[in-house]
Amino acid sequence: MKITVTSGKGGTGKTLISTSLALSLSKKYPTTYIDLDVEEPNGYIFIKPDIQKKEPITLPFPKVDYDKCNFCGVCQEVCAYNAIAVLSFNNEVKIFPELCKSCGNCVLNCPEKAMFEVPREIGTLTYGKRENLKFFEGKLNISEVTTTSAIRIVKKKSLEDIRDGEILIYDSPPGASCPMVEASKGGDYIILITEPTPFGLFDLRIAVGVVKGLNKKFGVIINKEMEGFDELYEYLKKENIKVLLKIPFERRIAESYSKGKTLSEIDKEWEDIFLNLYNQILEEVND
Amino acid sequence: MIELAIVSGKGGTGKTTVSASFSVLAKNKIIADCDVDAPDLHLLLKPKVNIKKDFFGMKKAYINKDSCIECGVCIDVCRFDAISPDYVVDTALCEGCEVCFTQCPVKVIEMRENKAGEYFVSETPYGKMVHGILGVGEENSGKLVAIIRNVARYYAQKEKVDYIIVDGPPGIGCPVNSTLSGLKYAVGVTEPTESGLSDLERLMELFHHFKIKPFIIINKSDLNPEMSEKIKRKSIEEGAIFLGEIPFDPVVVESLKMGKPVVIYEKDSKAKKIITELWKKIEDYLSRKI
């Protein structure tokens, strides 16, 4: 079972909830937490895993064999991202790593077969463990922009060694564009986290659009629940969206969060709440 | 003219709260919302849209199934897993790289224009605003951000304003890179949490990369005073200008719920006083530099 925890808006509590959920479930089931927020992975702060291994995340990057290249310019023409500049006056082919998406089109189309690919490091994949919980984290290097590709690679790695009946919790990046779509695409069920403010509602509507487009079963957790913004509840009711859980807006939770504590570390009760939540999701997925 | 972006690394730190207030306080400015994934600034500034334009992202591949011989080449060469086993392109995954288009042996794939969002030029009670929104699940937020910045600069030059106030996206990836490239100054809004610190460290690296002089603000600072102190020290060590702290003030959440910038919501709130001082500090610093 793969559950993606996501949100349109950042800062709604995605990581707090996904790490709390993963740690609670790991007491009973084989569970893996996978941090797919590769631009800003924060799951480690709450999981505090023992790090077992790190390896580079790489993408193939084109190189030119100057013995074969005749500077015909085809690679530059076929590159949809303007990542290649052929400077024939200078006998040079410039390839800009920050624009290249590693699609391979230049290599496939080079008439002289003068291009090949070498791995280029774009980030780091970290493996870890805390008791029964396995931990994966993808982290993109600064100034890299291939967020979605990094997520795809981390997801593939997390699927390599799955145990029977394992639960995978994907902690998604915020927003509603490609990186969030890539993280959500992997899930059997999607949990959307929101908060009762106009920002929360505006971004939730966008995220719901994405999830519906992906044809996934989903439910909403309302974090920082408080009075005074009824539009969120009206929207959820009107759209017939299931509210899985409400987490109160309490200074105590905010303070513990600031110190990197999961919900079940604040209050044991949360373990049962999350186990119940999982059973509810299981029923819905198998329905 | 100074272009000032408000970014945060981490989402939900109060970037838009600060941007909205700075947009009110700055006297002569253009406002730009570069968080095209989840734009929220308009919820506070209530812009009236004057110009609306379509944004076209990368073209997307389309397979003409009538002539397709189902040879499998396109599926093999697509590195984004965007083509299903029954030869349908998932436009949400297609990155427009054209590999399938160039490699299809029977040439049944075409690249089609793809409307990926919209952008707007609007009037707010506080000045002109340029903003946009990406279509659901679309890519290329960096390109749309670049357009918004260019349009904002056009008006900034035309109207001879002093500032462009930019509300930035979260994270450190494509849209943030596009928001920060070429800037001299930016404001980093953080929160006193372990996550806030972790993300700020990454954001600082990005500031260094772009050679940007950052101003740092800690929002909700009294939630964890120890952490606030740590962040303050850290940012000064890293060469940032530490602007100050905004304590947790319920009036901020209230003003959000009412859809108003906090500096105009209540006449004498603590948050209003502090944010006004923070803006004054920025203006003083920048006026000395000019």
Mean of pLDDT of chain A: 95
Task: Report the strand count of chain B.
Answer: 11
* Residue share in β-strands of chain B: 15-25%
**What is the terminal separation of chain A in angstroms?**
14 Å
Q: Give the helix/strand class of chain A.
A: alpha/beta
- Major beta sheet, strand line-up of chain A: 3-6-7-2-8-1-9-10-11
* Main sheet properties of chain B: 9 strands, mixed
Provide key terms for this protein:
heterodimer; A: 287 residues; alpha/beta; nine-stranded mixed sheet; two-stranded antiparallel sheet; B: 290 residues; two-stranded antiparallel ribbon
Molecular structure report:
Chain A has 287 residues and is of the alpha/beta class. Chain A contains eleven helices and eleven strands. Chain A has a nine-stranded mixed sheet with strand order 3-6-7-2-8-1-9-10-11, sandwiched between helices. Chain A has a two-stranded antiparallel ribbon with strand order 4-5. In chain A, helix 1 (14-26) packs across helix 11 and helix 5 (147-158) packs parallel to helix 6. The mean pLDDT of chain A is 95. Chain B has 290 residues and is an alpha/beta fold. In chain B, strand 6 (115-124) and strand 7 (127-134) form a beta hairpin. Helix content of chain B is 39%, strand content 24%. In chain B, the strands form two sheets. In chain B, strands 3-6-7-2-8-1-9-10-11 form a nine-stranded mixed sheet, sandwiched between helices. Chain B is built from eleven helices and eleven strands. Chain B has helices spanning 15-25, 41-45, 73-77, 99-103, 141-158, 174-180, 194-210, 225-237, 250-257, 262-265, 270-289, and strands spanning 2-7, 29-33, 48-56, 60-63, 109-112, 115-124, 127-134, 163-167, 185-190, 213-219, 241-246. Classes of the chains: A alpha/beta (287), B alpha/beta (290). Chains A and B meet through helix 4, helix 5, helix 6, helix 7 and helix 9 of A and helix 4, helix 6, helix 7 and helix 9 of B.
